[in-house]
Every structure is written in C-alpha cells, then in structure tokens.
Design goal:
mainly alpha, single chain
Length: about 70
C-alpha cells in the first residue's frame, strides 16, 4: 500500500472521531484593509513601539477583542 494514502486515511478518521469541523473555503473570512492595518500597528505596539499610531491601534485592538 502507498504510505501516503494510509496516512491520509488515518488523519481523516482521526478528524471524524475528534468531532472537529474540517474548514473549507466557504468558512474563510475576508479581513478588510482597515483591520489588517489595525493588527499590524497593534502588533508593533506589543513589540515595543511607543508612537501614537501604534499605541492607539493597540487600545482599539484590545477593545475589539474584549467584546
């Protein structure tokens, strides 16, 4: 038997038994450019940047994530 097919079958059965959903392209969420910029600048703030834009983006990120 082909080992790759055996491994794929084993992974498939393990996923079915674990009750986890297998995500498809329909489950994808498109992130807007505004959110991409927010995450980028919030990440800079968490890495140590202390300019106004980074700090404000981090505050906004925290408020969005706490909802």
């Amino acid at each position: 038997m082909n080992l790759e097919l055996v491994a794929r079958d084993a992974r498939g059965r393990a996923l079915e038994n674990s009750k986890h959903r297998v995500l498809t392209d329909k489950d994808r969420v498109d992130i807007t450019q505004e959110l991409k910029q927010l995450y980028f600048h919030a990440g800079r703030a968490s890495a140590g940047a202390r300019d106004y834009l980074a700090v404000e983006a981090y505050k906004r990120y925290q408020s969005l994530e706490s909802k």
